[in-house]
Specification:
Number of strands: 29
Low-confidence stretches: 1-6
Radius of gyration: 20 Å
Strand order of the largest sheet: 2-1-29-28
Oligomer: single chain
Distance between the termini: 14 Å
Mean pLDDT: 91
Length: 413
């Protein structure tokens, strides 16, 4: 990665009841503020940092996976740790990022590196990889709705290893030594992994399933990993996202597969919008990035203006529509670089037509000031949220994330 230690800065805005914004306080932040890493100058990432590989958020905790010189990776966390979601050494709360100890898991001495992370409501997930050993998945924190994936009896604040030994394919046991975890995504109450097995692929999930968000099985909860049945004709998954009660998969073919609740119209006609290259979910909505580099489609709940367009005659966008960027951009479509879905708000990285500038725009639920606009009113149409007129930090936008009432911007200065 090109970013160097002295040039990376992480900003956050929004809900901060347990210090999950890492700005040294427990007060909501209605503007973007610099995050603090313990032992570092405020706003600076730790010495030797080459990049931020992932940032994930739970109800009130945040994890970031940093890569240092020589490819060394270190997990940092902040916010609420009372359920063990920040590991057994931190069961209180942190108002700034601190390293999460890896020595407890005894995998570093075996050549393992933490490569993937995810966070559900009060549960965290770490995927360790080694060049010569099978992947290992550790879960830690709350076991509500069987979120740990190790059965319903586990309740201690101790990290546990998720087992896949019980899985079968066509009646034959899976050789777990050949399972490779390519990605892991956690929703509020369910988790899905994209797994490569031999020369094939599959999705594996657990947690809350009563709305069929883990496939059409009719089972209320899966307390251990379960193979999700997919239509193989759609091809391998490319990306996927989890809402409160639904799961949406974008295949390499551009087709969409969806499971779960459609109560808010969040699954309506997802397969009728042409070729898709990206997908995201709010709690009760679905967002699809079309292959034209300009169009972001949305459907589902619009209770806080989170669809980014105005459904006619109904609160929710049952029919779906395109997010309306153009009303603030002289009716010219911007280039859509990326987007991130929070609980009920969305932020997007765009380049306005005819410009070389890169900006962050946002809309939707804003009760905690999570759009960084210095107010708490909901925003029904996209508006620019970074850079602002009061911005004292320069630099370029590297990446954005959105969480449960929170928004995050990584800058290269």
């Amino acid at each position: 990665m090109e970013a160097q230690t002295s040039s990376l800065c992480l900003l956050a805005a929004g809900s901060n009841a347990r210090g999950q914004l890492a700005n040294g306080s427990e007060d909501d932040s209605h503007t973007f503020q610099e995050c603090h890493f313990t032992g570092c100058v405020r706003g600076a990432l730790p010495p030797g940092t080459q990049g931020m590989l992932q940032l994930v958020t739970g109800a009130n905790h945040t994890l970031v996976l940093l890569e240092y010189d020589a490819g060394i990776r270190v997990l940092w966390g902040c916010g609420d740790g009372r359920k063990g979601q920040l590991g057994p050494e931190c069961t209180g709360q942190l108002t700034e990022f601190k390293p999460i100890s890896m020595s407890l898991y005894n995998y570093a001495s075996q050549g393992y590196t933490c490569c993937l992370i995810a966070a559900a409501w009060e549960t965290s997930y770490l995927v360790f990889k080694s060049p010569s050993r099978p992947d290992v998945l550790i879960s830690m924190g709350s076991n509500d709705f069987a979120a740990l994936g190790v059965g319903i009896k586990q309740s201690k604040l101790t990290p546990v290893v998720v087992s896949f030994d019980h899985l079968t394919i066509e009646g034959r046991p899976v050789d777990t030594s050949r399972l490779v975890i390519e990605s892991i995504v956690a929703g509020t109450r369910h988790v899905v992994l994209y797994v490569r097995y031999k020369n094939d692929y599959m999705l594996v999930g657990w947690g809350l399933a009563r709305h069929n968000q883990l496939g059409h099985t009719g089972i209320a909860n899966y307390d251990r990993p379960h193979i999700i049945t997919l239509d193989v004709s759609a091809g391998p998954p490319q990306t996927y996202s989890l809402g409160l009660q639904h799961t949406v998969i974008c295949h390499q073919s551009g087709r969409i597969t969806a499971f779960g609740s459609n109560k808010k119209g969040q699954l309506h006609s997802l397969d009728s919008w042409g070729r898709i290259r990206g997908v995201g979910c709010t709690w009760n909505g679905t967002y699809l990035m079309k292959d034209d580099e300009h169009t972001l489609l949305s459907t589902g709940s619009n209770s806080h203006g989170q669809l980014g367009w105005e459904p006619q005659g109904a609160e929710d966008g049952i029919g779906g529509g395109a997010v309306e960027f153009t009303s603030s951009l002289n009716d010219r479509m911007p280039s859509l670089r990326s987007f991130a879905c929070g609980s009920e708000h969305v932020i997007a990285v765009i380049t306005p037509a005819g410009s070389m500038d890169v900006e962050v725009w946002g809309w939707g639920w804003n009760e905690h000031g999570n759009l960084g606009l210095d107010h708490t009113d909901d925003v029904p149409k996209p508006v620019k949220i970074w850079p602002t007129g009061e911005c004292v930090l320069g630099g370029s936008i590297v990446q954005v994330w959105a969480g449960n009432g929170t928004s995050w911007i990584l800058l290269q200065i």
